[in-house]
Design brief:
The complex is a heterodimer of chains A (268) and B (455). By secondary structure, chain A is an alpha/beta fold. Helix content of chain A is 40%, strand content 24%. In chain A, helix 7 links the parallel strand 7 and strand 8. Chain B is mostly helical and 455 residues long. Helices cover 68% and strands 4% of the residues of chain B. In chain B, the strands form 2 sheets. Chain B has a two-stranded antiparallel sheet with strand order 1-2. In chain B, strands 3-4 form a two-stranded antiparallel ribbon. The chains are: A alpha/beta (268), B mainly alpha (455). Chains A and B meet through helix 1, helix 2, helix 3, helix 4 and helix 6 of A and helix 11, helix 12, helix 13, helix 14 and helix 18 of B.
C-alpha cells in the first residue's frame, strides 16, 4: 500500500481552554475524494486550518506526502505548505477583489516561480517568457472551470458560483497534489451545485488532484465523496463509505439527537 | 438648540473655525504687553496679492473662502438644470477622452514623451536662479523620494514613517566614502560621489532588511510606530556620534560629482542645471523600473498581500519576503536620493533628516494617489512647486513658518473632494469602490482569522 497523502496522527488543537480538535487521527489516500462532515462547531474548519499551516496544533503530527516530497505540516507557514502541494479554498470565499478573474488565477500560477525583482524591473527575456507561460496556464485553467468569458471581470462582481469556481482555479494554479474545499456549495443554487459536483470530479479525474472536502450539503457529499470522516465536538466519531455513514447510529445521534445545534445543519 | 446639532450648522461652524485658524495662524504674532494683538492684528493687517486687491487679512481670507463656497454652491445649484447637464456632459466627455487616451499605448507614449521634452526644456525657460536650484534640490529629488516611498506605502501597503533614515544613510555614506566625515574613509583615494551610489544602495538595503525582518510581522499602526522610532534613532546617532558623523555640524566638504572615463570627462559644479539633468535621468530610470515592477509578479503579489494576507499565503505567497523586498526597494531609492543630495548640496547635517521630512514625503504620496506612480509624480510637482512658490514669492504676507498651514488646508480640501488622491491608480479606485459597494471587506479584516477566530 502506498503512503497516505495526508497522515494526521493524534492532533489536538486548543484555543486557551477551548479544545477545538481533540486527538484527531485520519488519513487520505492518494487520488481519493474524501469528505469531513459534522455539525456546526465540530472543528472542521479548524482541521483545515491545521492542515494548511494557518493554525499550529499543540499535539500530534500531520505528514503530507505530495508529488514534491514529504512535509511535516505543523510549524510550517501556509505559503510553505502550499508550495509542497496543498491548495485550498475558503468558507467565505476570499478573492483578491480589486483584481480581475484572470489576475486572481495568475497570482496562483506564478507564486512559486522565484522572485526575480531585477528581472521584473528590466523585463528581460526570461521574465517575458515566464509571463507568457503563466498567461497560457492561466487561460487553460479559466477554460477548465468555464470562466474564460469572464476573465477580465473584477472578481468582486462575479456571482457566487463563479467565485467558487474561480477560487478552485486559483488553487489549482499553484499545481497542488490535493485541493482542500471548505464548503464549496455554500450559497450556491441547485443548478450551480450540479455544475460544482461535476467540476470537482473533473479536477480529480482529469488533473489527478485529490480532493478533501468539508460540506454541509448532504446530497452533494454523499454523491461525491468516496469516504467520509464525521467530526463532533472536535473528535472523530465515525469513518466509512457514504452508505456506512448513513447507517451509523452515532452519526444520526450527532446530527439529529443533539439539543440545540443539530437541526441547523444544512441551513447554510 | 436643535439647530446647533444639525449637519448644516456643523458644516458652517467648522468652515468658520477653519477660516479663523488660517487667518490667525498666518497673521503676525502677538507680544507680552498686548496679548490679544496677535488675534486682532491678524484680521486687520493689510495684505495684498502681488500688489493687487489690498485688503485687511480677515477680509481677504473671508473673500477667498466665500469664493470657494460660492463655487461649490454654484455646482450644487446647477445640478438638474440645463447648465448642470452641460457640465456633466462635458465632464463625462473629458473623462472618456482621457480614459481612452490612457488605454491606447500610442497616446500614453506620446504623453510621456511630451512630459519628458518639457522636463528637458524647463531649465532653459525658467532661468531664475532660485527656481533652478529648487528644481533640483526641492522638486526632482523629492520626486525620486516620493516614488520610492510609493513602493512601500502604495504598492505594499506598509506605513513607513521613518523613510528619512534611508535618505540620511545615503547622504552620510556619500560623505564617508568621499572622505568628508571625521570617520576615516574606507579608501585611500577619495572617490567622487558616483562611487557612493552602489555602496549607499547596498548599505540602505541592508538597513532596510535589518529593520524589516523583525518589524514587518507587525501590522498597520504598530509598524508605523517602529519605523518612526527607527527614523529618530538614526537622526540621534548622526547628532551624537560626533567622532564619526561630525555631530550637529555634519559635513561640508563633499566633492561634486564628476566623470573621468577615458576621453569622457565632466565635472558637476555649483550650477544646478547639470545636476537637474543628472537627477532627471535617474528619475526616468526609476520610473521605468518601478512601473515594470508594478505590473510584474512582484507587483501583483503586493496587491494580493494588501488585499487579503491569508488568501495570499494560501496561494503560496510569502508575505514577509515581499514586504521586506518592498522595504529594501523603497530604501534603495531613498539612499539614491541621499547620494545626489550629498553631492549636490556639498554639506549635510542632521537637521535635514527629521520626522517632518518623512511626513512631507508621505504627504506627496497621499496627495498624488497612493500606488499610482504618475499620480505621485504629479502630486510631488504640485506640492513642492507650490511650497517653493510661497517661499519665493511670499504672497499675502506669507512667512516661511506658515507653509504647513497652507499645505494642511490644501490636504484637507483634497481629502474632501478627492480622497483617493489627485490621480489614483486603477486598483486603488477599484478597492475604494468595492468597499463602498459592500463587495469587499474593509481594511484590517484579513487579520481576523489569524487572531484566534473560533471555528
Amino acid at each position: 500500500m502506498t503512503a497516505p497523502l495526508f497522515d494526521v496522527q493524534n492532533v489536538t488543537l486548543r484555543f486557551g481552554g477551548v479544545v477545538s480538535l481533540n486527538n484527531v487521527s485520519l488519513h487520505q489516500n492518494p487520488g481519493e475524494i474524501l469528505a469531513v462532515i459534522g455539525p456546526n462547531g465540530a472543528g472542521k474548519t479548524s482541521l483545515f486550518n491545521s492542515l494548511t499551516g494557518v493554525y499550529q496544533p499543540q499535539e500530534g503530527s500531520i505528514t503530507f506526502n505530495g508529488a514534491k516530497g514529504a512535509l511535516s505540516v505543523i510549524g510550517k507557514k501556509p505559503h510553505r505548505v502550499n508550495a509542497a502541494g496543498v491548495a485550498r479554498t475558503f468558507q467565505a470565499s476570499r478573492m483578491f477583489s480589486a483584481m480581475t478573474a484572470f489576475e486572481n488565477v495568475k497570482i496562483g500560477a506564478e507564486s512559486h516561480k522565484g522572485i526575480g525583482v531585477l528581472g521584473a524591473m528590466v523585463r528581460g527575456p526570461s521574465t517575458r517568457r515566464h509571463d507568457r507561460e503563466t498567461d497560457e496556464r492561466t487561460w487553460s485553467l479559466l477554460r477548465f472551470v468555464g470562466l474564460e468569458q469572464q476573465a477580465n471581470v473584477l472578481s468582486a462582481s462575479l456571482n457566487y458560483g463563479a467565485r467558487r469556481r474561480l477560487e478552485i482555479a486559483r488553487g489549482l494554479a499553484t499545481n497542488p497534489s490535493v485541493l482542500l474545499l471548505d464548503e464549496p456549495a455554500a450559497g450556491t443554487n441547485p443548478a450551480e451545485k450540479i455544475e460544482l459536483t461535476t467540476l470537482i470530479r473533473r479536477v480529480r479525474d482529469e488533473m489527478g488532484v485529490s480532493i478533501l472536502l468539508i460540506e454541509h450539503d448532504m446530497k452533494l457529499v454523499m454523491s461525491l465523496a468516496e469516504r467520509l470522516y464525521v467530526l463532533n465536538f472536535g473528535s472523530v466519531i465515525a469513518e466509512g463509505t457514504p452508505d456506512e455513514i448513513r447507517a451509523n447510529p452515532a452519526v444520526v445521534e450527532a446530527y439529529l439527537g443533539s439539543t440545540d445545534t443539530g437541526t441547523t445543519q444544512g441551513a447554510q | 438648540m436643535k439647530f446647533l446639532q444639525s449637519p448644516t450648522a456643523k458644516r458652517w461652524g467648522s468652515l468658520i473655525a477653519l477660516y479663523a485658524v488660517v487667518t490667525v495662524m498666518t497673521g503676525p504674532p502677538g507680544n507680552q504687553s498686548s496679548p490679544t494683538l496677535g488675534f486682532t492684528s491678524s484680521f486687520t493687517e493689510t495684505v495684498s496679492f502681488f500688489g493687487l486687491f489690498p485688503a485687511p487679512r480677515g477680509v481677504f481670507f473671508a473673500g477667498l473662502f466665500a469664493l470657494v463656497i460660492g463655487f461649490m454652491w454654484l455646482v450644487r445649484w446647477s445640478r438638474g438644470t440645463k447648465i448642470g447637464q452641460l457640465r456633466t456632459a462635458v465632464t463625462v466627455a473629458t473623462l472618456d477622452f482621457y480614459r481612452e487616451a490612457a488605454e491606447r499605448r500610442f497616446a500614453r507614449t506620446g504623453f510621456y514623451l511630451v512630459a519628458l521634452v518639457i522636463a528637458i526644456a524647463l531649465p532653459h525657460v525658467v532661468t531664475d536662479p532660485f527656481w533652478q536650484q529648487a528644481m533640483v534640490s526641492q522638486i526632482a529629488i523629492y520626486v525620486l523620494l516620493a516614488i520610492g516611498l510609493n513602493v512601500v506605502v502604495g504598492f505594499a501597503g506598509l506605513l513607513d514613517l521613518g523613510f528619512v533614515a534611508f535618505y540620511a544613510i545615503g547622504a552620510y555614506t556619500t560623505a564617508w566614502i568621499t572622505g568628508a566625515l571625521p570617520a576615516a574613509a574606507p579608501f585611500h583615494h577619495h572617490l567622487n560621489p558616483f562611487w557612493a551610489i552602489p555602496i549607499a544602495i547596498v548599505f540602505v538595503m541592508i538597513a532596510g532588511v535589518l529593520l524589516g525582518l523583525p518589524t514587518l510581522r507587525l501590522r498597520g499602526d504598530y509598524l508605523a510606530i517602529v519605523t518612526l522610532g527607527f527614523g529618530e534613532i538614526v537622526t540621534i546617532f548622526l547628532n551624537n556620534l560626533y567622532t564619526i558623523t561630525g555631530g550637529s555640524t555634519g559635513s561640508n566638504q563633499i566633492p561634486h560629482f564628476s566623470i573621468h572615463l577615458g576621453a569622457l570627462k565632466y565635472a558637476w559644479g555649483l550650477d544646478p542645471v547639470p545636476y537637474y539633468y543628472l537627477t532627471l535621468g535617474f528619475v526616468v530610470v526609476f520610473l521605468f523600473a518601478f512601473s515594470a515592477l508594478e505590473h510584474s509578479r512582484v507587483g501583483r503579489s503586493w496587491v494580493a498581500i494588501r488585499e487579503d494576507e491569508i488568501a495570499a499565503e494560501s496561494v503560496g505567497i510569502n508575505p514577509l519576503k515581499y514586504k521586506v523586498i518592498a522595504f529594501a526597494i523603497g530604501a534603495a531609492s531613498a539612499g539614491f536620493a541621499g547620494v545626489i543630495t550629498g553631492g549636490q548640496s556639498l554639506f549635510i547635517n542632521p537637521t535635514t533628516f527629521t520626522l517632518s521630512f518623512s511626513i512631507n514625503i508621505l504627504v506627496l504620496v497621499i496627495f498624488g494617489g497612493m500606488g499610482s506612480i504618475i499620480g505621485v509624480v504629479i502630486g510631488s510637482l504640485i506640492i513642492q512647486s507650490l511650497s517653493m512658490y510661497l517661499i519665493h514669492a511670499q504672497p499675502v504676507g506669507f512667512q516661511n513658518s506658515d507653509l504647513y498651514i497652507y499645505l494642511g488646508a490644501l490636504l484637507i480640501a483634497m481629502m474632501i473632494f478627492r480622497p483617493a488622491g489627485i490621480w489614483p491608480s486603477k486598483r486603488r479606485r477599484r478597492e475604494v469602490a468595492n468597499v463602498e459597494n459592500g463587495l469587499a471587506p474593509d481594511l484590517g479584516n484579513s487579520s481576523q482569522l489569524r487572531n484566534g477566530e473560533q471555528p
